[in-house]
From TrEMBL:
Record key words, sorted: Glycosidase, Hydrolase, Signal
Keyword Hydrolase: yes
Pfam family, one: Glyco_hydro_39
Protein family (similarity comment): Belongs to the glycosyl hydrolase 39 family.
Domain Glycosyl hydrolases family 39 N-terminal catalytic: 33-528
Single GO BP term: carbohydrate metabolic process
MF GO annotations: hydrolase activity, hydrolyzing O-glycosyl compounds
Keyword Lipid biosynthesis included in the entry's annotation: no
Species name: Flavobacterium cellulosilyticum
Signal peptide: 1-21
SUPFAM superfamilies according to UniProt: (Trans)glycosidases (SSF51445), Glycosyl hydrolase domain (SSF51011)
Residues the record marks as active site: 208 (proton donor)
Protein's name according to its UniProt entry: Beta-xylosidase
Length: 565
């Protein structure tokens, strides 16, 4: 009884400190969350440790290198990175939704000239940090394009999105030249990085062929066949996949996807004349759809989760694909990373904690959907990186701005602290899987959910307070009852992302939203962008394998309770 009383006092003090830090009204009723560490449900595999972006030349720029180093440090296992435009012609100068490497040009007689210097700068940056490429084979070099003019676009966020589709999006004039380019690239990669290293990569052809490809479906299958054959000729043990379709749940996308799989299984290979084509991984995309409702951003997780469900079900429908590694090549709250909130006000969620809580809630459902369908889920690519030399907190879908980490990156830092087995969780305010797939979170109450893991000497409990409407609400006390702890003492560390913690955006606004912050201000912002704790770690007694922890969770907040012993 004495121990229980002391622990109640500790929790009460902890709760009071949390309330004071939030400086907001708090509901009086506890939300009950139960964590059963002795009831595993699956592996806590790092499917979240995948990232991507449009502009490849940001990779080796100052802030790009800094962010990639941070991403590499998120996970004890390698992070994978995907980027567009690795074969696009140009001067290597980045712009929004544009990048180039000039890997392929031709002389006056039409002979191939290969130049790997920019691609090497990109891949060297990855390999130096232990990052693995999800290497995208595309887009079309100018000298090969069936419609080379106009080639480079000058798109900006206020322009129609269709203006980006210039000469790089067209089929090749000569598929044999295309195949030789791919062969030489893979061969060069093996020579530069070694066979074992390149065997650990994934290669994939093009991006969203139902959208980014200005040829026919059959012409895309031909491109895939020639690409895959070239990759395998250069490195027979290389892994290649497709097709990274957009809008997976739509009827047209399902038509594309089924036709592609059937072609890989039994179609006549355009490159070899034989039956089928190599398919070592199955990739598709999943996107949500935020809107404005009376001037307030309203997120919608349902389309994204329906895309994922559809992709999983298609993979399961063929014996040849049901056990393949599945990669969601882009998995995000919406589609255009480079469309800031000035031109697309529905994207105003990106700087603050709405993006954080959405990510926590949606990634937890990706695990649950993978469990439901029993598929070999490898990774979900968050198509968000950084935009070099752009306005501070412009509202791009990015992880950092001008070298300062945004709140969203701290969710991935939390994921990086979770390992081992995922375990059973129960919350009286967590939306059932089928309901959130169909309707997202639209009721009067926000969702308070959890994802938990346990390893040999540690456990991690991620909690979030999420609602589709981007509004603040009453902070809620949450009672976390943890059972199945196989030790008598633990050290509890409480990490959180809210208006007062792990939030460079709020600090920047309090500075007056400077667009030219001083070096001292930048230093403060960099510190504010790191993952913070509420108070200091606490040593706690465990009674008969049980522990109760009380916290306060404001709306849009994400917390991680880390237990170590």
């Amino acid at each position: 009884m004495i121990k229980q009383f002391l622990f109640w006092c500790l929790c009460t003090n902890f709760l009071i400190l949390s309330v004071k830090a939030q400086d907001t009204l708090v509901s009086k009723k506890y939300v009950d969350v139960k964590i059963m560490l002795d009831k595993p449900v699956g592996e806590m595999y790092p499917m979240w440790a995948w990232f991507g972006y449009d502009e490849p030349n940001y990779t080796y720029m100052k802030d790009g290198k800094k962010l990639l180093s941070e991403l590499a440090n998120l996970s004890p296992t390698p992070v994978y990175v995907r980027t567009h435009s690795l074969l696009v012609s140009g001067d290597g100068v980045a712009a929004l939704k544009w990048g180039s490497t000039n890997a392929y040009t031709e002389d006056e007689k039409g002979n191939a000239i290969y130049n790997w210097s920019i691609i090497d700068s990109i891949f060297d940056t990855y390999i130096k940090r232990g990052i693995k490429p999800l290497a995208q084979i595309g887009f079309m070099p100018k000298a090969m394009s069936t419609k080379p003019e106009p080639y480079r676009h000058s798109w900006k966020p206020s322009d129609p999105y269709s203006e980006i589709f210039t000469g790089w999006a067209y089929p090749p004039k000569d598929y044999n030249k295309w195949a030789e380019l791919v062969y030489q690239w893979v061969k060069h990669s093996v020579e530069r990085y070694g066979k074992k290293e390149v065997e650990s990569w994934y290669w994939e052809v093009w991006n969203e062929p139902n959208y980014y490809w200005k040829g026919t479906m059959d012409e895309f299958f031909k491109l895939y066949d020639y690409s895959a054959d070239a990759v395998k000729r250069a490195l027979p043990t290389a892994k290649i996949g497709g097709l990274n379709i957009a809008g997976t749940r739509s009827e047209n996308s399902q038509k594309w996807t089924n036709a592609f799989i059937q072609h890989c299984i039994s179609g006549t290979n355009y490159a070899t004349g034989k039956k089928g084509a190599p398919l070592d991984a199955f990739l598709f995309h999943a996107k949500g759809n935020p809107t404005l409702v009376d001037g307030v951003v309203r997120m919608d997780m349902s389309p994204q989760l329906k895309d994922i469900s559809t992709g999983f079900k298609i993979a399961l429908s063929y014996p040849e694909t049901k056990n393949l590694p599945i990669i969601i090549g882009e998995s995000d709250p919406e589609g255009c990373a480079a469309c800031g909130m000035a031109t697309n006000p529905q994207n105003a969620y990106r700087n603050g904690t709405m993006y954080s809580s959405y990510t926590a809630a949606s990634f937890a459902r990706k695990y649950l959907l993978a469990d439901k369908y029993g598929i070999n889920f490898l990774g979900a690519v968050s198509w968000s990186f950084e935009f070099e030399n752009q306005p501070w907190f412009y509202g791009f879908r990015d992880l950092a701005t001008n070298g300062v980490d945004k709140p969203i990156l701290n969710v991935f830092r939390m994921f990086g602290k979770m390992s081992g087995k995922r375990v059973t969780v129960q919350s009286d305010r967590m939306t059932p899987l089928q309901s959130i797939v169909e309707n997202s979170v639209r009721g009067e109450q926000s969702e308070i959910g959890a994802l938990a893991s346990v390893d040999k000497k540690t456990a991690g409990i991620m909690l979030w307070n999420y609602h589709d409407l981007d509004q603040l609400g009453i902070a809620e006390p949450v009672r976390v009852s943890i059972s199945g702890i196989k030790t008598k003492k633990v050290t509890l560390t409480h990490y959180t992302i809210d208006s007062q913690h792990s939030n460079s955006y709020e600090v920047w606004k309090k500075m007056g939203s400077p667009q030219n912050p001083t070096s001292e201000q930048i230093s403060i912002l960099e510190k504010a962008g790191q993952l913070e704790t509420v108070g200091n770690p606490q040593k706690l007694d465990v009674t008969l394998g049980n522990l109760v922890v009380d916290i306060v969770l404001p709306r849009q907040a994400v917390s991680l309770l880390k237990l170590d012993w």
